[in-house]
Amino acid sequence: MKHNLIFGHKTPDTDSVCAAIALAELKNKLNEVSVPYILGHINKETEFVLNYFNVEVPNILDNVRIQIKDLDYDRVKPFNKNKSVHFAYFNMSENKLRTLPIIDDEGFLAGIVTMKDIAMSLINTDQQHLCTSYDNILETLIGKSILRFDEIIDGEITVASLETKTLRESAILNKKSIVIMGDRREVIKYAIEIGVRLIIITGDMEVSPDLIKQAEKNRVNIISTPYQTYYTAKNISLSKYVKDIMKGRDIMMFSDDDYLNDCKEDIEHSKHSKFPIISSEKKYLGMLNRNNLINPQRKKVILVDHNEMNQSADGLDEAEILEVIDHHKIGDIRTSIPISFRNTPVGSSNTIIYQMYMENNIKIEKNTAGLMISGIISDTLLFKSPTTTEADRRTVDELLKIVNIDLYKYAMEMFKAGTALDGYTIEEILFQDFKKFNLSYKNVGISQVFTLDINQIMNKKDEFISLIDTITADKEYYLMIMAVTDIVNEGSYIFYSSDKERLVKAIFEEETIYQGIYIDKCVSRKKQIVPRIINALKAMRG
Question: Which one, 91, 224, 354, 371, has least CB within 10 Å?
Answer without folding.
Answer: 91
